[in-house]
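Final report, Chapter 2: Outcomes

The project's central promise was a pipeline that accepts a single protein chain and returns its three-dimensional structure in a standardized token representation, suitable for archiving and comparison. That pipeline is now operational. To close this chapter, we reproduce one record exactly as it appears in the project archive, with the input sequence first and the structure output second.
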Amino acid sequence: MINMNSEPFSISNSKPTAINGTISSSLFSLTHLQYLDLSFNNFMNSKIPGSFANLTRLTYLNLSNSMFTGSITTQLSNLTSLEWLDISCSYRLSDQSSISFNLSSSLDRIYSGTGYSYRYGGDLSLSTLEFLQGLHNLKELRLTGVDLSEASQSTQWANPISFLSNLNWLQLSNCRIFSNFPQKQLLNPTKLSVLVMEFNSFTSAIPHELTNLTSLSLLMLTNSKLQGSVPYLPRLTALFLGSNSDIGIDLQTMFAAPWPRLFYLDISSIPVHGSLPASFFNTTFLQYLIAMDCSLQGPIPASITNLSRLDTLMLDYNNIGGPLPPSISNLKTLKSIYIRQNSLQGSIPSSICNMFSLQNLALGYNHLSGTLPSCISQLRNLQFFGVGVNKMSGTITSLASFFKNSNATTISFGDSGLTVKVDELPFPPDFHPQILDLCSFRLGGGIPNFISNLTQLSSLSLANNNLSGTIPSWLFNLPNLAFLNLSSNNLQGVVPPQITLVHSYIGPTGLILSKNKFHGYIPSLLQNIDVVDLSGNSFTGSIPRQLGVQRIRYLSLSGNKIYGQIPSTFCPSDNVMMLLDLSNNILSGTVPTSLGNCTSLIYLNLGGNKFEGEIPNQLENAQNLSYLDISYNNFSGPFPYFFRKLQRLSILKLGNNRFQGRIPKFIGDIKYLRILDLQSNFFNDSIPLEINQLENIQYLDLSNNKLSGTILGKLNGLKMLTARPRDGNILGFVVSTILAAVELNMVTKGVLQQFTVGLYMLNLSHNSLHGKIPISIGNMSGLESLDLSFNNLGGKIPTEMALLHALSTFNISYNNLSGKIPTLQHFDTLSVDGSAYIGNEFLCGAPLRTSCDNDSSWSSSRSADDMEDSLQNKMFYVIITIGYGVGLWGFFGVLYLIKDDWRRTYWRSIDLTVLRIIHSARRTQNKIQGF
């Protein structure tokens, strides 16, 4: 199989027995030979010998996946006795690389593709299929993986197949076919019962002429770029259509008439309209229903019990709601239930315990509530049990007792809402799970000792519990451990300097120790580990030189006390680094040019350190970079010119550095930018017109610079701000299992706040902009926050601003504006020259109080405001006294230890005092009239 890193992976210990070398010429002297199977050998990329023409009595020939190469011409054309021919040069295998985790969510939401792919076992091609015309006796023809891209350029490329009147099995999968579906040529083999043409690129709809193939029983067209609707094929027993996003399925219409023979249906990753209709459950012969990621809605109807032969139900990644019907227990043959990542509600029915044939129960990522039926422990055949990420309640009083009858290999309780008690009872001798997830299980004390006996364990997750103490020495000695997640606990002590994990797991190997209390040095030898997350601890020292040369894909050391420079040997030329997060440490010096070798980088975060100098131009080699954060450092120089080559950038944060000069015109060429943060630098001159080309921008912060000139007159190019999509998704990239949430810092009312992605903001404050506010800002219906304060803007406030219905924060204070403020219905904060409206509470400077009278909430909240003003004044004088008594910095330290309400009151009183002083000096400039 292929693991999540797109690498071949095998759990078999058997030794290969393939033949290596070339075919001996003596083989072709066996002229009476009728059956020859040379499949899955290694003939060293040699060509198929022409001497096969001597074996004219062959009825069976299998040369598949034996590392042949070259073009097939006439080598096989006179084997007229052949009934079975397989010259495939690729084979299907399970592929987990399509499984990924969306970083834009606070949860590791899972997405999956087809679940399998093709791996090449040779490199054969056909420029024409003419050699088939003489093979009249062929019953089975398999050409999987043979390159037909040249042949399929002809509209009649499949004509030779029409001469094979005895053909009942045709397999042309993964053949690089780029053409219309050849329906006419496939109608002549009237005995055709199996048609497999998946993983191609057809440029037409599914032909309804397939209904004329009266013998057709299996149709496999997965991932073939087909369009249109599904024809009615009542004689089919198996239909595979998954991963054809241009096919539309209306189940109500599709199953208006019965499909009496259908036992296998795969419509995964196809848009399906509506819910599962009652008519669908008349397909009583159905044994396998695979409908993942189809946008299915509605509940699971009780009529599902009509599918009395159902073996496997896979409905993952849909919008299915309602409860799991208790009647599902009537499906006595059902072995697998996969309904992960839906919207199931209610409790798991206890009737499920009557399903003694059940082997796989996967209900994670739903909204299930209630307690877990204890009788589930009676399901002796249960192999996969997953209820993680739900809203359940209750306590499992004895983990050992719960699994007393279990042979489960995968157990996932993580974030289910359940509480567990780990007792001293022994686990059954057959309890040897391979994957154990007990995240958010309210576990206390040390890491449970019973885990030391789980010698088959490959993945262990104990994150977000109350675990304390140190990591026991036996943990890293588990012989098959490949993935360890101990994040968000109270573990402490030092981490061993050398840790080795085992590639015994389909996912990436991982060491996740973030958000604990570990200290000491960063471990220097981390072998066979793809994911390393040591963030949010108290590690000290420098970054070990060895760490940068090991084949780590995702490395996060963020939020520690690491100092010194990034080693110059970091990122050798053969590195596979995709994520590097060194943010919020005490690192200094310049960024080494060797980071340019990290050509696979998608995410780079160096923010919150003491780096200086310029960004090395060699970083332009990271062409896949989508997230770059170098904010809160001492970088200097002009805007890096090589950024124009990073065309996949989605998030760029350069704020709080010493960059200077103009914002370059090429900024508009970085089309995928969604977050651009250039705040608190020394950029000057005008805002480049090309910024209007950033169609995907959602968060634009140019505040606290030295920008001059006017605001762009036309902002209609910022389409994401003018018509915000409903889903609000801001991160369009995926980086395996690392949760790299984007945080945006904003100083509001004296408090540094962190906003998660999803805020649609335009901030041009604290510059020297002049002129009028453009009318086009009124078209930015997606804006949630607009800050134009502390500029020299003049003229009237456009009435079109009233159209900003999503606006919640609006700040135009400290300008030279005039006119009337438009009615804004949904804002939380409005700041206008010394007065501020926060929620339902007005805080106005004394000279401006009359400007607040027209708001209905003013009179009702006035007495409360007077009391708060009094408290603020008292607090102000108390603060001054304390500041002189114990020292200003001493007070600030205390201030951040006291209650949030007190801290907010303090900053509010400071804000009001400053506002009143400034307003007193500038009140003659204020011409704003009422509300």
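Archive annotation: DSSP finds six helices and 66 strands in the chain.
This record, like all others produced under the grant, will remain available to the consortium after the project formally closes.
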